[in-house]
Amino acid sequence: MSEDVLPKAEGTRYLGPACDERGFVLKRKLPVGPARALAELAAEYAFFSPAILYLYGAFTDGPFVDLMFELNRDVALYHHRFRRPLFRGLEARSNGDPGWNYVLWAVRKDDWAFLRDYLVSLKFCHEEHRWVVRIGERPLLIVDPLVADRGQLLPGGGVEVTAFGIYTNKFCCGLVDHEKLARPPVLTIGPAHPELAVWAEARFAGGNPDVAVLQHKALAAQRETQREKRREEG
After folding, report:
1. Distance between CA atoms of residues 117 and 133, nearest Å
2. How many CB atoms lie within 10 A of CB 231?
3. Is the same domain home to 176 and 215?
4. More confident residue, 172 or 231
5. Same domain, 110 and 76
6. Are residues 66 and 152 in the same domain?
7. Which structural domain range is residue 85 located in?
8. What is the mean pLDDT of the chain?
């Protein structure tokens, strides 16, 4: 039995994932090997883009580190840069670098549900800027980028990926796919999330944000009931 598969000695403490000097978790290159299509790897890997979290959500690798400590083991993060863009609009705000448009991340399917559920459960409060951020997800069907890179002509041609976006009390940001598969999904920025705006206003005013949201929902339901009644009467 190799050392890699030996059981941990009783009492062994998980020391966290390998990180570089900046605190970024080390990522592995996705082993595409001779695969003709990314879809051929879909049984083993789940593909996703965290680009918006880093570009617009002040995200760092910290949550991935926390996730691994919660699991008490490493979660392998993979990445691959394709030759053609998968997305539109994901340019770094500091220098206009379009690199995120070409990149997908991946994890093994056994780790995917926990990683996805963990990320969408997070809420970040930035006191200085009175800014609250939550993470959302959206499944997208894109042209299989490995097929495109290798010039293959295969049936189907689509592969499902997950794009993480953000809801905030100031704006919302996500990737939206085009009705035509050949057009890459594009970055879309919209207005603040109403309930998160209510939550943030109460939170930074020193009130109870959860109670404020419940009151907001009750008032919205009351208004909708009144509108329905007027429609029936009119």
Report:
1. 16
2. 8
3. no
4. 172
5. yes
6. yes
7. 3-192
8. 89
17-25: long-range pairs with CB below 8 Å, 24+:
17/64, 17/65, 17/68, 17/74, 17/75, 18/74, 19/61, 19/65, 23/60, 23/61, 23/62, 24/61, 25/61, 25/64, 25/65, 25/68, 25/77
C-alpha 170/C-alpha 190 separation (Å) is 9
Tokens at 185, concatenated: 């999904």
Q: Give CA–CA dist 58/151, Å, rounded.
A: 37
Tokens of 81: 């840069």
Given this model, what pLDDT does residue 223 score? 86
User: Is the separation of the CB atoms in 41 and 147 below 8 Å?
Assistant: no
Tokens 């005013």, residue located: 205
Closest residue by Cα to residue 143 from 156, 130, 129: 156
Distance CA 75, CA 105 (A): 13
Asked whether residue 125 falls in the same domain as residue 224, the answer is no
Residue 97 in tokens: 């670098």
pLDDT in tens, 2-48: 344 444 555 678 999 999 888 899 999 999 999 989 999 999 999 99
185-225 tens-digit pLDDT: 999 999 999 999 999 999 999 999 999 999 989 988 888 88
Res 10: pLDDT = 56
For every residue of 165-186, DSSP letters joined together read EEEESS-EEEEE--SSTTSPPE
Single-letter amino acid code for the residue at 133: V
Q: Kindly calculate the radius of gyration of the chain based on its CA atoms and give it in whole angstroms.
A: 21
Where does residue 219 fall: left (phi above 0), alpha (psi -120 to 50 degrees), or beta otherwise?
alpha
